[in-house]
Amino acid sequence: MIRYRPFQNWDPPALAEIWRSQPPIRGRIQTVTPPLLEKYVFAKPWFDRHGLIVACDGARPIGFVHAGFATSDDQRDIDPAQGTICQVMVAPHEQRGVIAVELLNAGEDYLRRRGAKQIYAGSQYPLNPFYLGLYGSSDVPGVLATDTMLVELLRGSGYTPKIRRTLWRRTLAGLKPPIDRQWMQVRRKFTASALLEAHPDNWWDACVWAHHDWTRCNLTLPGGSERVISALLWDIEPLAMSWGVQTAGLIWIDDTPEAREEGLTLFLLSETMRQYQAAGYAAFEAQAAADDTSLAGIFTRLGLAQYDEGALWAKA
């Protein structure tokens, strides 16, 4: 008899075991532990034990679903009208498929009881309350395409992909700038700053990124008096522990279509990657909206290759 109940304080070891039992994929840390779950999930100020529902076969936890909410428009609170199913995991079991469906339904019921008018699946801003650093890459991208068990569950339960993101990476060994006439002209006119410490400017980001340090690199006019465009980055931890290499991740780039056409974005990212290479980093990760062909083209010129895709799914 399978029963479903809210999270209890003694569950973390069993939840970590369920997590580790999942098929390995690059975008999901395999060596998760109870302390990692406590630090990156349970410690969030909006964590609600009723939103983490555990499936038990007798006394033994064998699966869980975790649901949460979006940030409000002013990023000062949660928005209960928009809920998302952040994770569904079931350990190997003869009723695995049935349990996954019942967990998903239980997560949806929780969100509706708390006021959700629209239900999504996957963690992707502004629906990114949990699992940064444990799932995804340079940010939480929604549900990874390589997370096939969850993708199949959602597709069979009335969800459709809504917002897609592409995941890119390259090693920094052998990094060379994509030098051409335009690149040289930009280099003569602009300067890429050293990597600078940066901080969130709102409550939501401060909580989501609480255990991660931000770094900014700016493209400035001579003398560094005026910032033209900038890139925000971080160390992808603890997920990069699964990859065995120190990896920098691009969170976002504050640029314009004109900056891309003029080669400013290409130059800034190439200089940013060069600085990380000099600092001993072995790899670089980035994401782009699936329809952002201009940014994808810049990533390709910088030697990055797409290796996965993420999507925020919406319940019909």
**CATH architect. name of the largest domain:** 3-Layer(aba) Sandwich
Main sheet specs = 14 strands, mixed
CATH fold call of the largest domain: Aminopeptidase
Query: In which range does the helix fraction lie?
Result: 25-40%
Provide the residue-averaged pLDDT: 96
Helix count equals 10
Per the principal axes of the C-alpha atoms, what is the gross shape? elongated
Tally of extended strands? Answer: 14
Q: Roughly how many Å apart are the termini?
A: 31 Å
How much β-strand is present in the residues? 25-35%
CATH class of the largest domain: Alpha Beta
Radius of gyration: 21 Å
Low-confidence stretches: none
| Tally of individual domains | 2
Structural class: alpha+beta
Q: What is the CATH homologous superfamily assignment of the largest domain?
A: Gcn5-related N-acetyltransferase (GNAT)
H and E string = EHHEEEHEEHEHEEHEEHEHHEHE
Characterize the structure shown.
The chain is of the alpha+beta class. It folds into two domains: 2-164, Aminopeptidase (3-Layer(aba) Sandwich), CATH 3.40.630.30; 168-309, Gcn5-related N-acetyltransferase (GNAT) (Aminopeptidase, 3-Layer(aba) Sandwich), CATH 3.40.630. 29% of the residues lie in helices and 32% in strands. It has ten helices and 14 strands. It has helices spanning 12-20, 34-42, 96-113, 148-155, 181-189, 203-208, 239-243, 257-261, 264-278, 293-301, and strands spanning 2-6, 52-57, 60-71, 78-90, 118-121, 143-144, 159-171, 191-192, 196-198, 214-220, 227-235, 247-254, 283-289, 305-315. Strands 1, 2, 3, 4, 5, 6, 7, 8, 9, 10, 11, 12, 13 and 14 form a 14-stranded mixed beta sheet that branches. A hairpin with a 6-residue loop joins strand 10 (214-220) and strand 11 (227-235). Helix 1 (12-20) crosses helix 2 (34-42). The radius of gyration is 21 Å and the shape is elongated.
